[in-house]
Amino acid sequence: MTSGSGACGSGGDVDARRRINEELRAYTSAEINRLIQEHLQQSVVPRPIHHRALAPRDHVIAHQRLFDDYFAEQQRFGENFFRRRFRMHQPLFMSIMNALERRYKYFRFREDASGRPGYTPIQKCTAAIRQLAHGGVADMFNEYLNIGETTARECVRYFCTGVIHIFGDRYLRKSIPEHCQALMDMHGFTTC
Questions:
Q1: Which residue in 29, 40, 91, 93 has its CB near the most CB atoms, within 10 A?
Q2: What is the pLDDT of residues 16-64, one digit of tens each?
Q3: CB atoms < 10 A from the CB of 132, how many?
Q4: Distance (Å, rounded) from C-alpha 155 to C-alpha 29?
Q5: Distance CA 26, CA 32 (A)
Q6: pLDDT at residue 43 in the model
Q7: How many other β-carbons are positioned within 10 Å of the β-carbon of residue 94?
Q8: Per DSSP, what are the bridge partners of residue 111?
């Protein structure tokens, strides 16, 4: 009788455990679903979403204006204006721009992520060279080139890095005393 009642007792324990586990699972599942639904119904964002302010810039029109002014067959401004504004002759500008465009992806024309046309190599090199030639602030050509301040700074940084890497071995060599003396003599400096 003991063994018989013991078998029935252990079967009842298993049933009780199973019932408790099922009730616990049902309660836990219901509580999890309630919390999920409550969270989904909340429209509160944990932090404000800041959208980047975009200034409408038409890169194509700006490129066409720049091209018509300085690079077209019948350019609006002549070689003298180009020389004054860029502090170099147009063929030198074009050779630097072509070398940068061939070597660096940054100076190639491409579209941005939304499919809008980006800046042309002429626009990027113009922004860099005119900043370096005139020592102005980064956004001084915003109205003419339609290039923002950040992009203009990037143009200068990539331009300088590119010119150093491409032309450094040929043109940026260390000076020797004879060259320094020749330059000083050429400009009328006297040595003590």
A1: 93
A2: 888 888 888 888 888 888 888 877 776 566 677 777 776 667 778 888 8
A3: 15
A4: 57
A5: 10
A6: 59
A7: 14
A8: 117
Q: Tell me the sheet residues that pair with 117.
A: 111
Q: Where exactly are the structural domains of the chain?
A: 59-184
C-alpha distances in angstroms, 127 versus 95, 105, 154, 182? 16, 17, 10, 34
Per the CB < 8 A criterion, the answer to whether 109 and 153 are in contact is no
What the block records as the tokens of 157 is: 């940084």
What phi, psi does 111 have (nearest 5°)? -95, 155
Both tokens assigned to 46: 């944990």
Contact present, 121 and 184 (Cβ < 8 Å)? no
**Secondary structure letter of residue 78 according to DSSP:** -
**For residue 85, what are its two tokens?**
């504004």
- For residues 191 and 184, is the Cβ–Cβ distance under 8 A? yes
